[in-house]
Design the sequence.
């Protein structure tokens, strides 16, 4: 069974969601057996996910029985859902009960607040190794999906289990959305370890979230999560059970990174920064907790089972020593490739365990990696190379505000959320980057729009 769920203590609590309902490992196995009876093996199913027991059961029941889910947020915009539905034509849907009437398809099974709907679409031919589909990170309207094999998912879960030295006694706070690759990584690694998930869809501003967090031994957040937590003076709270705080899903500001490292140091906890991509089933690298105070903003080194390298601008690939260039990852968690259509679900493994990340990285003499930008997030204005990520980090570190950079080869455009900075920033950016102020356009916006994972959308 997926993640060796059937080899765990059947009486052990596997998950508790916001309703307070507990499911044991035996319950997970029993549901998977029941789910298998409801639909044919190798069916394509759209799973409209929420962070709750019913959603989790659909995921585990699918992967334990050779059923291939595309995991989407239950809050997916109707136009996007319709576009994906028409393109991929799933045979089944696993949806919250409140969506059943609106969708109008035949209901064949219901459990834990979710229902299985039969669409009437014809079966689709899929590669035998295909196990899971996820939207590409940050996409809001793209049909592009990442194709995962069962081995990709279980290899990454085991890598992460070893990285955090899980022994099954953990209670992991799982707040990242299930349709987000890091959210699934938290789920899979802890269930493989035989631990307990505290699965929550609550806002960080909700009192119930804090009640649950007080029981947790670990918390995983993205930069946006920690921005909210810091505003709520998270580092001053009494959380005696919390042993590990970990981050993924993007780069923290230096100030935020240092604050979390100092907090962990002072309180006898561990702060472990991680790095990953959907294309590598989430995590790929981590910074050991003992290096957090001295390696600010480093992603550290490859996770157990993986390998990192750098290809410099001359095409030379190196695995050790100081270097800067595109970071490459190798490991069994590298996914099979992408799908842009129903026909692509037949494709095999196109990556063969190697992923060119598209991230520019610097490796120091100690073998620790630092992300310095994206290959595609650069402008070249009058011969001057401008890293958009670098400019954003400079502004965030200096002024403590949210911002977003974009532009073309004539102008750098910066979106800011404080109107008083519109006149101030051109001189600041000119000083830091040597870009002439007339090629800098500062625009005030009410907010930088982000998805649930904290990634900027539609800006």
Sequence:
């Amino acid at each position: 069974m997926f993640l060796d769920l059937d080899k765990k203590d059947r009486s052990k609590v596997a998950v508790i969601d916001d309703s307070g309902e507990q499911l044991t490992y035996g319950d997970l196995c029993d549901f998977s057996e029941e789910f298998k009876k409801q639909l044919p093996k190798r069916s394509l199913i759209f799973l409209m996910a929420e962070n709750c027991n019913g959603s989790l059961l659909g995921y585990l029941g699918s992967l334990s029985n050779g059923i291939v889910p595309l995991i989407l947020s239950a809050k997916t915009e109707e136009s996007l859902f319709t576009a994906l539905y028409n393109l991929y034509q799933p045979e089944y849907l696993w949806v919250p009960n409140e969506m059943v009437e609106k969708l109008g398809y035949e209901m064949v099974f219901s459990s834990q607040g979710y229902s299985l709907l039969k669409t009437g679409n014809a079966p689709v031919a899929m590669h035998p190794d295909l196990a899971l589909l996820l939207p590409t990170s940050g996409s809001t309207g793209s049909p592009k999906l990442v194709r995962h094999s069962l081995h990709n998912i279980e290899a990454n879960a085991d890598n992460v289990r070893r990285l955090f030295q899980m022994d099954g006694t953990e209670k992991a706070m799982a707040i990242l959305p299930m349709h987000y690759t890091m959210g699934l990584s938290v789920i899979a690694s802890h269930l493989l370890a035989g631990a307990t998930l505290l699965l929550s869809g609550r806002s960080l501003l909700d009192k119930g979230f804090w009640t649950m967090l007080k029981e947790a031994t670990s918390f995983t957040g993205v930069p946006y999560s920690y921005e909210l937590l810091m505003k709520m003076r998270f580092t001053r709270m009494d959380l005696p059970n919390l042993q590990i705080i970990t981050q993924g899903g993007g780069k923290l500001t230096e100030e935020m990174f240092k604050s979390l490292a100092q907090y962990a140091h002072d309180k006898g906890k561990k702060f472990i920064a991680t790095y990953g991509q959907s294309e590598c089933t989430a995590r790929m690298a981590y910074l050991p907790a003992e290096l957090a105070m001295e390696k600010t903003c480093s992603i550290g080194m490859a996770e157990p089972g993986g390998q990192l390298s750098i290809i410099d601008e001359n095409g030379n690939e190196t695995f050790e020593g100081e270097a800067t260039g595109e970071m490459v990852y190798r490991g069994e968690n590298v996914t099979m490739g992408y799908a842009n259509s129903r026909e692509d679900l037949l494709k095999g493994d196109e990556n063969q365990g190697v992923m060119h990340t598209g991230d520019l990285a610097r490796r120091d003499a100690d073998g620790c990696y630092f992300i310095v930008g994206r290959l595609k997030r650069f402008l070249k204005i009058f011969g001057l190379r401008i890293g958009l990520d670098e400019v954003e980090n400079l502004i965030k570190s200096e002024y403590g505000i949210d911002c977003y950079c974009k532009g073309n080869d004539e102008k750098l455009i910066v979106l800011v959320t404080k109107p008083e900075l519109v006149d101030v920033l051109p001189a600041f950016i000119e000083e830091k980057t040597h870009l002439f102020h007339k090629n800098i356009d500062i625009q005030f916006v009410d907010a930088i729009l982000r998805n649930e994972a904290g990634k900027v959308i539609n800006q």
Remarks:
- Residues 148 and 162 are 21 Å apart (CA to CA).
